[in-house]
Amino acid sequence: MQTNTPSRSRTRLTRRGRLAVLVTGAVMAGTAVAVPLLTLATGREQAKPATLVIPEGWRASQIYDAIDKALKLSPGSTRTAVGKASLKLPNEARGNPEGYLFPATYPVRKGATPESMLQLMIDAADQKFNGAPVAAGAQRNAMNVYQAVTVASIVQAEASTKADMGKVARVIFNRLNSGMPLQMDSTLHYALNRNTADTSQSDSQEENPYNSHQRTGLPPTPIDNPGEDAMRAALNPTPGDWLYFVTIAPGETRFTADYNTHLRNVAEYQALHQNTGTAQPTGDGPPAPPSAPADAQPALR
């Protein structure tokens, strides 16, 4: 810091006086520097890009709409762009990014396009899903990574709490290993583009590859975009023999391997909710045994 030296003709200052001048000058210089720094900091805050938050479990269609709004594009622009985009996806995805639009908060920078936003999400998924531990976890369950993401997407849709995810994943694997249809309403609602807990008898007879009431095995693609917890559950399902589950109330999901116990759980759910307009339990199960009447089957989510 430079200071002006007083001329010899001026009154000499005492040591205390010189110290006072130096201190005063330092404060003034510090103030002069602080103002532009504060201005620059404020400018940087103003220059921060907007962000786009993608929640866990959103479907690709919801994300497309969110990107349209974030980029101020006409509705349907991102959906149209997907077909023309050169997105870096697994071969099994066949150009469909469902399952690989990783839930996170993304910057919306100047000049961003639907393709650039989608690729950001896919790159994030690639970092999370394509490591050696994920591949090893998928292999333990006799599937590839894409199939593991598909299982995780069902877990994300079906589990009512993080604590239930591992058990829901185990139900899925137990059914697959037993040759049972998954009978997860979440897969059917995906095909019907619904967000509901209601499934009618005619819905369950719908002919489409996502109808896990009618078809065995996994649906052809993920049904949403799962987060890390759901993926972790799909790779490391909780040990158990469960085949059925019903969410009686928020935070209370009952898992069982016994069909009759499952029916009692469903009956309890229906008794609790018969006057609330939500008589459909949020659980699933394979078809009733042949000896059981058709109306004994639980209403499935």
Number of strands: 4
Q: N- to C-terminal separation?
A: 73 Å
Binned strand content: 5-15%
Structural class: mainly alpha
Order of strands in the sheet with the most strands? 1-2
Run of helices and strands: HEHHEHHHHHHHEEH
Please write out the topology.
Elements: H1 15-47, E1 50-53, H2 60-70, H3 77-84, E2 105-108, H4 114-129, H5 132-140, H6 145-158, H7 165-178, H8 185-191, H9 201-204, H10 228-235, E3 244-249, E4 252-256, H11 259-273
Antiparallel strand pairs: 1-2, 3-4
Helix pairs in contact: 6-7, 6-10, 7-10
Family: Belongs to the transglycosylase MltG family.
Pfam families: YceG
Function: Functions as a peptidoglycan terminase that cleaves nascent peptidoglycan strands endolytically to terminate their elongation.
Describe this structure in words.
The chain is mainly alpha-helical and 301 residues long. 46% of the residues lie in helices and 6% in strands. It is built from eleven helices and four strands. It has helices at residues 15-47, 60-70, 77-84, 114-129, 132-140, 145-158, 165-178, 185-191, 201-204, 228-235, 259-273, and strands at 50-53, 105-108, 244-249, 252-256. Strands 1-2 form a two-stranded antiparallel ribbon. Strands 3-4 form a two-stranded antiparallel ribbon. Strand 3 (244-249) and strand 4 (252-256) form a beta hairpin. Helix 6 packs across helix 7, helix 6 (145-158) crosses helix 10 and helix 7 (165-178) crosses helix 10. The longest helix is centred in the first third of the chain and has 33 residues, at 15-47. The chain is globular. The N and C termini lie far apart (73 Å). Residues 1-41 and 285-301 have low confidence and may be disordered. Residues 197-234, 276-301 are annotated as: Disordered. Keywords: Cell membrane, Cell wall biogenesis/degradation, Lyase, Membrane, Transmembrane, Transmembrane helix.
